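Hi! If you just cloned this repository, the fastest way to understand the data is to look at a raw example. We've pasted two of them here, unedited. The first protein comes first, obviously.
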Amino acid sequence: MEIVDLTSFVSGEILLETEFVENIKDSDWDRYQDKNVLVRGCGEAPLPIWAFMMISAKLAPVAKTIRYGNEHSNIVIYRRSS
């Protein structure tokens, strides 16, 4: 399973929307083609729901499945139909 850590799109401890959006735009989402992806990122500071939604919107066209949570406890929020 591939892992996308939302905190990697944030510099420092504060999420700045414009910076977050630019980092998402500059990422190579094709590397998740046909893979099971875990979106992780609630570390020290909670992230807003829209951040998870933006990542999911980028992953949905390429990923096989998208999960939220951690490696031991997660839920499937998207599964591509065959």
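Ok, and the second one:
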Amino acid sequence: MGPRDGSGPVWDDRPWAPLPALRGTVSADVCVVGLGGSGLAAVHELVALGADVVGVDAGRVGGAAAGRNGGFFLAGTPDFFHRAAAAMGADRAAALYRLTLHELDRIWVQTPQAFRRTGSVRIAATQEEITDCRAQLAAMRSAGLPVQPYAGPEGHGLLFPLDVAGQPLLRCRLLASRARMLRAKLYEGSPAVDVAGRRVRTRGGEVRCGSVVVAVDGGLERVLPELAGRVRSARLQILATAPAPEVHIPRPVYARWGLDYWQQTAGKRVVLGGFRDLGGEGEWTLEATPTATVQSALEEFLRVGLAVRAPVTHRWAGCIAFTDDRLPVFEQVRDGVWAIGAYSGTGNVLGAICGRAAAQRIATGRSLVDGLLDEQPAPVA
């Protein structure tokens, strides 16, 4: 690996003035633990609903999975649509897919400077996957969802025209800055060491509150040990290059059943992630550090598969969490404590939905995911 091994995400490309750590005792209607995309969505929704909000993060705003991913903002759930429809029913899967399309529109309008509406493609690596793409195409067309067959330089597969390529860390920082302007109190460097419905203790202070939202993806089972049997965290690894004008990648690409993914930024850098399966059981970890095995596979594909000659400038890792049913955690796990997370690799959009929904459930008793992510009845239109 090169001289900037573990240099951090390519998205961290502009100054950020650190927020203070929590010291002493503060009070709020709701405390949000975790200031990534989902936590900040919860903060904004709570403020809009009239709540007084305090948010705390163990590190920096967007410093975990929210700002250390590949920058894909995709509609749908972690499972390809036809598989999700088989698992949860076609109507429910289609309604959830449409909800993510609406959320993409919200995200685009909210922070347009962080996004490019490029669409995305799924590329099949084998004949078996080509057959699977055909099944996905048929199921999505039957449900009236936006999809097209695709054939291009990357190969054959599917095109999803409404998906978005994004700068995830910039989005988080924009949301945090706006939340503070709206009088939400946000604190960095303040890991939650004790979480209860009316109190969150950090190493240096305490939030007294009426409710709590724990908005954590990777490591959710560490913050809330009662979820350990359902949630398991894994490391994702990514690299990025200097500007690579020798290639043209117009939209984000998912390949090999979604295990590998890449895009080219507006500045022509190539961002490539995946090959987690080559790391074996060792990738089920909370250690967010790049490894030689996976990074070597990434660089070989970069050079041979994508024909990129530009030097690698950034290598990083992040931790995300998975569930067996591939649906996120969205539930009250303790009296007054809501848990959201474990997005199985698609947290940029689902996380925003879950954050808003948790805020709505706390403030009003109803939410936009009622009947979709839990067994509550769907809200009356």
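That's it. A detail worth noticing about the second one: DSSP finds eight helices and 21 strands in the chain.
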